[in-house]
Amino acid sequence: MSEEQNSKDRCREDISAAHDIRARIPSLVGKVVSQYDKDGRLHHIGPEPIPSRQAIIDIIYKTVPVLFPGFFSGKRIDEINAQYYLGEEITELFEMITLQIQHAIRHDCIRFNRACIRCEERSQEISLKFIEEIPRLQEILSKDVRAAFEGDPASRHFDEIIFCYPGLFAVAVYRVAHWLHTNDVPLIPRIMTEYAHSRTGIDIHPGVAIGDSFFIDHGTGVVIGETTVIGNRVRLYQGVTLGALSLSKDECPLLRDKKRHPTIEDDVIIYANATILGGKTVIGARSVVGGNVWLTESVPPDTSVFLKKPELVMKNK
Length: 317
Description:
By secondary structure, the chain is of the alpha/beta class. 47% of the residues lie in helices and 10% in strands.
């Protein structure tokens, strides 16, 4: 038999073997389907719609340029075209967010067998209220930008902060998500803040209550839990945790809607890698918490909390 014929036979054998392997896939798929969680916790197979994570990320990148016009648009905006440009962008934003809110509300209604609350009409009402809220969000964020400028001597001007600071991006996404959260929009706020978390390393739950002029310097590793309350003019540095005390499995359901995270009053500064835990823990106004401090008890106003300085040893080789 020639070399050419041997080569052809091998090719046919390879094709046949590959076909036989692929033919096993349907039975394997059947096994995967049969193992889906019977309570529906690990899959979403059914007629009800579900919000699109990618669409919600797109909404973030549609909203941020509206909150900071001209910075992220990709085109020049001036007094001639501003009305036209923002009108088009805001109209698109309204349509995008309405659809995702409708999916989120309808998902809850059907999946959890809740009473109908007019999903389509309700989503349009919330979206319109959100558009109405944009000027107030811009006002709040302008104070956050100023707080960053005044709190960081490395910043040269507001433009640098808006363009570059991950803390501002995380806070801007949080402010949008928090408004949606307080208006009872399910799922979407958490998708938004977790996306900002994945991009910046800053984890702010949308349920957190944060006052004006908030600044996170550097930011990587910051964690702010759901029931945290933060006053005005508070500054955090990288690695700060405002968290809950560890709970047993039996305790979790009892505390799910209770205050589990600390309260930080006005004008507090918390330095890098400090950890403050517990729903009854209050850091009083104008206090300073030093780096690497671990706190599970309250601190009175006007208090400085620091670790005792460790002894530094230097030896000549």
